[in-house]
Amino acid sequence: MDHREPGAVVAEGLRFGYPGREVLRGVDLRIGAGELVALVGLNGCGKSTFLRLAAGLLRPDGGRVLLDGEEVARLSRRGAARRVALLHQSAPPVPGLTVRQLVRQGRYAARGPLGMLRDGDDAVSARALADAGVADWAGRPVDALSGGERQRVRLAMALAQDTRTLLLDEPTTYLDLRHQLEVLQTVVRLRAERGLTVVMVVHDLNHAARFADRIVALRDGRVAADGKPADIVTPALLAEVLGVEGRVAPDDRGGWPVCYPDHPLEAARPLRNENHIH
């Protein structure tokens, strides 16, 4: 893979920790342009931290992340935001903003603070509204929308950054099943239509197996498994990464692996291979 390829995300020996707790312990990961990759693992394993490092919001303690061949930590905040958009797990409400006004916030990196004062949508904002399916709501207050509707608006705001790479931190959190599927199907469609590289943190392994091209499982700050869903979603993955005893069988329509968790284990089983589960 060419590290300079637009949309490519490469982590080399990536380490990061908070006071008293090491989170990432040497992550090597290469994500090619146009891939849709799901990050899975237990809480605290480093999934969200990886996204924040890739977006330039945190600086690594060791190693590096490359976007389009350039080291993220050496870019300015606006420079990183021109290359990668991060949809955070949750965002504080902004009372009084309309959908149009919120989506236009995504143009900050390109237009700057003065550009944000201009009236009207530019072509990029208009396309983001349309592509996320929220153009009809443009004049509505964001705080009057349902949770699923707000998440699609926040997705439109991320699209308005007009980057080749989209990072999604648990995009279905707090949503009911219908809206979870709606958001994930929208992400899959936008990835295909725009040629995006998408890396998303997903808690539901069944959703990861259905919608992602590739799953990367983190455990104890390292990559424990990496591959196509059909290859790595196994009872061993459930036990050794997620700490759950369970079964896996192919979906009778689509063929993707479906997990049937039976009960939690007292502790995740030791990894049989330090780098990959087979």
Automatic annotation (TrEMBL):
What top-level branch of life does the organism fall under? Bacteria
What membrane topology term does the record carry? Peripheral membrane protein
Q: Does the keyword Membrane apply?
A: yes
ABC transporter domain residues are 9-245
GO CC list: plasma membrane
For whether the record's keyword set contains Ribosomal protein, the answer is: no
Q: What is this protein called?
A: ABC transporter ATP-binding protein
Task: Specify the species.
Answer: Streptomyces odorifer
